[in-house]
Structures are given as C-alpha cells and as structure tokens.
Amino acid sequence: MLLTEIDHIAIAVNDLDAAIAWYQEVFGATVEHREVVESDGVAEALLRVADSYVQLLTPTRDDSPVAKYLANKGEGLHHVGYRVADCAVALESVKASGGRVIDESPRPGSRGTTVAFIHPKTSFGTLIELVQDNS
Ligand code: CO
Description:
8-stranded mixed sheet, 3 helices, 8 strands
C-alpha cells in the first residue's frame, strides 16, 4: 500500500482569517502552520486533527487555480493529500496505470514536503495530492 496516512484535507475558502477563527471558536483548533506558496498562488493554514491536518486554502492572486475553483464551484473540499513514503514511486504507479497527472514529476510543496497532483478525471472526481514528508 503506497498511501500511508491522510496527510490533509484541503478546503478552499474565500476568507482565510474568518475560516481559521471559526475553527478556533467552535472547535478550539489551533493553527500549527501558515504559509504562502507563491508558486501556487495560495495562502494556507494547517490545523492539526490527530496525525492529519485540515488545510484551509485561499488564493493570493486572481490567476491562481484556487481562485478559479472558488469562482466555478464556490467554497468547499478542494483536494485530499495522501502521505506517501516516496512521491516519485507513487506518481510512477499512477502513470504506469495510464492515469492522468497534473505534475509530471514531484515538486516542492509547503512545509518542505515533496508533492505531486493527480488529475481528478483519473481519481474518480477527487483531486489527489501525493505528499512525501521530508522532515
Ligand atoms: Co494540499
């Protein structure tokens, strides 16, 4: 089994601070990590849930994929991040099975991770991110 854990569930939101405040007030959540990923045009906040995270995601510019997602579909579940031991191996398995990928090869993600996205047309309508934790 190449998927070792749910790394994060990513939720696209219009107002990152409002979403963080809601999780804090209602569930007592705390922000473990915040990061702007300039290459992806997103700002994210990670709230720990057991050994996984809820990742709140908002666009930092109009041409960001998350901005397009919000415009088309509105707020909500954006992708699932699965933890893998080796992102390249998992990505190769997708490609070897004829699957469509968004990232042809692994690339840097947030928190110093190595990531690759699989096209939702391949993975039954869900955008999947393969996440290799390098810490
Ligand atoms: Co993600």
